[in-house]
Amino acid sequence: MMAMFAVMRVASHDYGDALSKSILFFEGQRSGKLPSTQRITWRKDSALNDGHQIGVDLVGGYYDAGDNVKFNFPMAFSTTMLAWSVTEFGKFMGPDQQRALEAIQWATDYFLKATSIPGFVFALVGDPYADHSCWERPEDMDTPRTPYAVSKTFPGSEVSGEIAAALAAASIVFRPKNLGYSARLLKRAKMIFYFADTYRGSYNVSLGQWVCPFYCDFSGYEDELVWGAAWLYRATKAPNYWNYVVDNAKHLSKILVRNIDGVTYSGGSFAEFGWDAKHAGINVLVSQVDYILGSNPLNMSYMVGYGQKYPQRIHHRGSSLPSIDQIPEHIDCQGGSAYFNSDKPNPNLLIGAVVGGPDMEDSYADSRADFVHSEPTTYINAPLVGLLAYFRSHPSS
Predict the structure, then answer these.
(1) Which residues form the Glycoside hydrolase family domain (predicted)?
(2) Residue 13: active-site member
């Protein structure tokens, strides 16, 4: 494996440029009131009333992919990974470290809102079915922005455990910069972990019709609980969290079988790592960067805006529709269909977005309709940030 890794790293890439763009991507995914420092200027304010119908401020956070729904489970994983990247490799980021901190805080400020009511953790905002039937700019959204939460009676240990991990990991990052904010994040992380562990259950049951099949939990919530405890131990060094990891990690080796909507799934592989399965991440994070940046059979970069050849027709509403600067008039639910079906490149460059990638034959169609391969997500980008930061300072490692 090391030999293969060395061979794939023969080609030299501008890792610093790729790092800057991988962080910039998150600005294009922002929901809420955008700051004056916003660099992706074709994006504007959106979803400014999230939570108002129930009297809770849920404005902010990130759209997870090319749609306009805020799914807090993958958003929290992306945040944990960004925080891990800065913790491990922040010293290699140079001026991009501050941008990475801003990306993390955009999420953690939102998660403090989403966990502000004791006994409740908000899991998503928006109607995924209504949203997925439209092709609209986030600035034009007219689909329901319904908030959904898990609770003591209707638990969701996976989403709560991942939010606890994100807050704990972020508390480590901000400790040298803003001790008060760090302490606030850590206090909330402890509270949410206790909630997740005490009131155990999967949000597949509590919110299944809204989170499945989009971000159904296939691997069980046990790995998120261990993951959350591991980050709390790292943030506090408290032995009770370490004991929790030791006592519970051994149960993750079994193959988990879940029946979801009448379909049986197996999970729990130590070879998997992502927004759902944390098993491999609990042990080690490994990822072949050069392939993504262009050292592949097509000689193309799978990061938008990096290199001379990269995806032009990504599955992303905001990128594929004209910006408000170009067409200020409202584009309704079906008004964007012509842009979705067009063969023309997306008018707005979502710089830094890493798409799903090629198929098993190393072929890439560059089609908006082929969302499996052409859609960028926050949880694809987030794990790359730390690796790019390392390679930025160690280009020949």
Answers:
(1) 15-288
(2) no
What b/e string do you get for 102-113 counting C-beta neighbours within 10 Å, with b at 16 or more? Answer: ebbbbbbbbbeb
- Of 285, 270, 292, residue with least CA distance to 356: 292
Model pLDDT for residues 106-126, shown as the tens digit of each residue: 999 999 999 999 999 999 999
At residue 279, does pLDDT exceed 80? no
CA dihedral 238, 72, 173, 45 (to 10 degrees): -150
- Other C-beta atoms lying within 10 Å of the C-beta of residue 225: 26
Active site residue 375: yes
Nearest to 392 by CA among 45, 20, 2: 20
pTM of the model: 0.90
Q: Count Cβ neighbours within 10 Å for each residue of 77-99 and write b for 16 or more, e otherwise.
A: bbbbbbbbbbbebbebbeebbeb
d(CA 354, CA 150): 31
Nearest of 112, 8, 100, 2 to residue 57 by alpha carbon:
112
Selected catalytic residue, list 17, 109, 366, 370 = 366
Side chain identity at residue 90, one-letter code: G
Q: From the candidates 64, 131, 136, 375, which is the catalytic residue? A: 375
Q: Do residues 147 and 125 touch, judged by C-beta distance below 8 A?
A: yes
Amino acid at site 73: F
- Alpha carbon distance 261, 217 (integer Å): 12
Helix axes 378-393, 72-89, angle to 10 degrees: 10
- Residue 323 three-state SS: coil
Residue 299: C-alpha distances to residues 40, 293, 296, 302, 381 (Å): 27, 9, 5, 10, 20
Nearest Cα neighbor of 375 from 105, 126, 74, 166 is 74
pLDDT tens digit sequence for 49-87 = 999 999 999 999 999 999 999 999 999 999 999 999 999
Helix 96-114 with 15-28: angle, nearest 10 deg:
30
Q: Is 136 a catalytic residue?
A: no
d(CA 25, CA 303): 10
- Ordered structural domains, the chain, with CATH: 2-393 (1.50.10.10)
Catalytic pick among 279, 315, 316, 373 = 315
Do residues 209 and 268 touch, judged by C-beta distance below 8 A? no
